[in-house]
Design goal:
Length: about 130
């Protein structure tokens, strides 16, 4: 059964898949970070905020706002969906001005191993956009 993208069920499923992904958990072993995501123009919802964080290498995705995020990434719903479907590369999206990043860019650069494992980790999850 598909989960609604950016819903509580989606966040729970993604967290579960992240924790089961050995390549992803290896990529963030022992790391602590919080990356806030702001998605604008979400159909019937306006703006949705969620965050990815790791406490000692244990990943979590949750709706809402992270306390003291290392960085905040803002994008429209259409761009978020394209990134989620792996139709758009995050670095290319940033370079093209399709996503805005504020905060610690160096911290994000250090998380490239994590970012590269996001798609494969959730590939089996059916999502409803």
């Amino acid at each position: 059964m598909a989960v609604k993208y950016l819903s509580e069920d989606w966040a729970k499923e993604v967290t579960s898949l992240f924790r089961q992904s050995e390549p992803l958990t290896k990529a963030i072993k022992g790391q602590n970070f919080a990356i806030q995501q702001v998605v604008t123009d979400v159909p019937d919802r306006g703006e949705v905020k969620y965050f990815a964080r790791s406490a000692e290498g244990v990943p979590e995705i949750a709706l809402g706002e992270a306390e003291n995020p290392d960085a905040t990434i803002t994008q429209t719903y259409d761009i978020a969906v394209a990134l989620d479907k792996q139709e758009l590369n995050p670095q290319a999206a940033f370079m093209q001005g399709k996503i805005k990043i504020t905060g610690n860019l160096m911290k994000l650069m250090q998380l490239q191993g994590f970012v590269s494992q996001l798609g494969p980790a959730v590939a089996s999850l059916e999502r409803e956009y």
